[in-house]
Amino acid sequence: MDAPSLVVALALGIVEGLTEFLPVSSTGHLIVAGSLLGHTGERAKVFEIAIQSGAMLAVVWEYRARFGRAIAGLRSDPLARRFALNLAIAFVPAAVLGLAFGSTIQRALFAPVPVAIAFVAGALVILWAERRQRLAPSSVRVVDVDAMTPLDALKVGIAQAFALIPGTSRSGATIIGGMLFGLSRRAATEFSFFLAVPTLIAAGAYDAWKNRGLFSASDAGMWAVGLVVSFASAFLVIRWLIRYVATHDFRWFAWYRIAFGIAVLLTAHYGWVRWTL
Interior CA angle at 31 toward 34 and 272, to 5°? Predict the structure, then answer.
């Protein structure tokens, strides 16, 4: 692995880990960062999918006791069975729609300008959801993940399907969708973490199989660096975010999304940056 490849792996690993679980769109940031670094094309997309595994493993490690109890209690614990059922139900909508329309969406929307538009649109939804929960706190009826019903899980799963649009943010769609459907901010955030595990495993496995011809032993070092760095940075974000949502809302993330989206649109419009895919 040469020095430029190491820099790309480090940079994109940090970007992935820092943004995967925040409502700011990791895919959108990776598309923009990859364009700036000149890391584009089909192999770049496969690399970006691969390093999401590092972020997913950070969730597994942080919540290893919770996942362990759920697996051990599948036969005897009703709460464990409902937790597993809720994850399965929430996973289905994005999986089905992704298989049906994922390739079409990638061809049409995986570019910096559509991502920037989605950034701004998603920010407006975040501001609306936060205002709604602030003015009507009684709308919160689910304060813990264990209190979620299968219908709650289905609603969050439908919200996650909107994240197929790059720039929307998977975590943003699930967290804000959960809040709109009556989950507390903490419950929505934690369920978003848990739902990331089957979602990212499935997305990574599918893309790895579909693009298996692009794999090369010479890329192993770059992939390993990106995965380890994304794991470490995502682990820090997970621990920080759970503390953050206890006393803060997501409005600052919405304003960041607006500023980021406008910056990309302005640079594209005036030709200050030559965005590529």
Answer: 75
Of 145, 35, 11, 9, the residue nearest 90 (C-alpha): 145
Tell me which amino acid residue 29 is: H
d(CA 50, CA 36): 20
Q: How far apart are CA 2 and CA 20, in angstroms?
A: 27
Render pLDDT for 164-176 as a digit per residue (tens, 0 to 9): 998 999 999 999 9
How many angstroms separate the CA atoms of 86 and 82, rounded?
A: 6
DSSP 74-101: TTT-HHHHHHHHHHHHHHHHHHHHHHHH
CB atoms within 10 A of CB 134: 10
| Cβ pair 227, 13 in contact under 8 A | yes
DSSP 3-state assignment of 183?
strand
Planar angle of CA 95, 87, 123, nearest 5 degrees: 70
Task: At 153, list the tokens.
Answer: 């899980």
CA angle 47, 52, 54 (to 5 degrees): 110
C-alpha gyration radius of the chain: 18
Give the whole-angstrom CA distance, residue 156 versus residue 179. 9
Burial class of residue 66 (count of CB atoms within 10 Å of its CB; 0-12, 13-18, 19+): middle
Convert the pLDDT of each residue in 205-252 to its tens digit.
888 888 778 777 777 889 899 999 999 999 999 999 999 998 899 999
CA dist 262 and 270 (Å) reads 12
- Minimal CA–CA distance to 200: which of 188, 208, 189? 208
